[in-house]
Design brief:
The chain is an alpha/beta fold and 303 residues long. It has three domains: 87 residues, Multidrug-efflux Transporter Regulator, Chain: A, Domain 2 (Orthogonal Bundle); 79 residues, Methyltransferase, Methionine Synthase (B12-binding Domains), Chain A, domain 1; 124 residues, no CATH class. 52% of the residues lie in helices and 8% in strands. It contains 14 helices and six strands. Strands 4-3-5-6 form a four-stranded parallel sheet, sandwiched between helices. The protein has a two-stranded antiparallel sheet with strand order 1-2.
């Protein structure tokens, strides 16, 4: 089922589309104003409303960007009568040199800025790309590769630490805007390992959530989540805790609320039915619906 098929009948607000498609409002406005990719309807007061066709088009744009296609080339591909053909010719992650130039240039720009310890220049590059591409594409095509390259070079340890610091501050600022309202349900994203990985996932999910900076005792998590209706916990696992830490941080019995885990080491710590698989951008559709009565399924997970 496509996003357009699953969306409510009434047109969505820009915030609703942002949560559904994982594209922040700033990027949606840029696609409309700068590139003419989408044309939302307007209410009498001028507020944007997105119908099913617009939502489906946004989803298609995201798919092209995630394949590495520059934003300026997306419109021609969407408008082409051979859209299905090009979808086969350009599989995910395999674009030709001209299409990947935008990311190669950004990669070089960020590395040069880091060599000079110029964190402000790094942030400026991120801001420029986020405006047009959104968090999923920027993280997948730029920050992930740069972090991997820096991690492989011991002499670049300071540069990697600086890059992680810039990213942490940048993503943390946005995470504040994702916190649920007073009566709004949301996910509590808990890192087991590098907190930056949890922040990156939060950026791509772009839905109501609290992104914690460190693990928390499972008893404290349970108490807090149970005190607020319609909430769940998502562990992001990229490090193996000690036995004592596992006993403190992870559940040993069924939880009375939705819970899931994602990351390279999640399957070693959690029951199989709690594990989410795939790339960051694929996780939102796998998460249980908050407030849908998960108690029975939680029992099955620990059976």
């Amino acid at each position: 089922m496509t996003a357009a098929e699953s969306m409510p009948k009434p047109p969505l607000t820009i915030q609703g589309v942002s949560e559904l498609c994982g594209v922040n409002a700033v990027t949606l406005r840029a696609w409309e104003r700068r590139y003419g990719l989408i044309e939302p309807e307007r209410t009498a007061k001028g507020h944007r409303r997105y119908n099913a066709a617009q939502v489906e088009k946004i989803q298609t744009i995201v798919q092209w960007l995630n394949k590495g296609v520059p934003i300026r080339q997306v419109r021609d591909l969407i408008d082409s009568q051979d859209h299905a053909f090009w979808s086969e010719v350009i599989p995910a992650g395999k674009v030709d040199g001209s299409r990947s130039n935008v990311w190669q240039a950004a990669h070089r720009e960020v590395l040069a800025a880091l060599q000079g310890l110029n964190g402000r220049r790094v942030e400026q590059c991120l801001n420029r790309l986020l405006r047009d591409y959104g968090h999923d594409a920027v993280i997948s095509h730029l920050t992930d590769p740069v972090r991997q390259q820096l991690a492989a070079s011991a002499p670049m340890a300071v540069q990697r630490a600086l890059f992680d610091s810039v990213l942490t501050q940048k993503w943390s600022a946005r995470a504040l805007s994702l916190m649920p309202g007073r009566r709004e349900p949301g996910w509590m994203v808990v890192p087991l390992g590098n907190p930056l990985d949890a922040l990156e996932l939060a950026m791509v999910m772009s839905s109501p959530l609290w992104c914690l900076s460190q693990p928390v005792a499972v008893e404290a998590l349970t108490q807090q989540v149970m005190a607020r209706e319609g909430c769940g916990v998502l562990w992001v696992v990229d490090a193996m805790p000690t036995a004592a830490q596992r006993d403190k941080w992870l559940p040993s019995e069924p939880l009375p609320f939705p819970a899931a885990a994602w990351g390279p080491l999640a399957s070693r710590l959690m029951p199989e039915t709690m594990i989410l698989n795939g790339l960051r951008g694929q996780l939102a559709s796998q998460l249980p619906t908050l407030g849908d009565g998960m108690n029975h399924r939680q029992t099955e997970r620990f059976a």
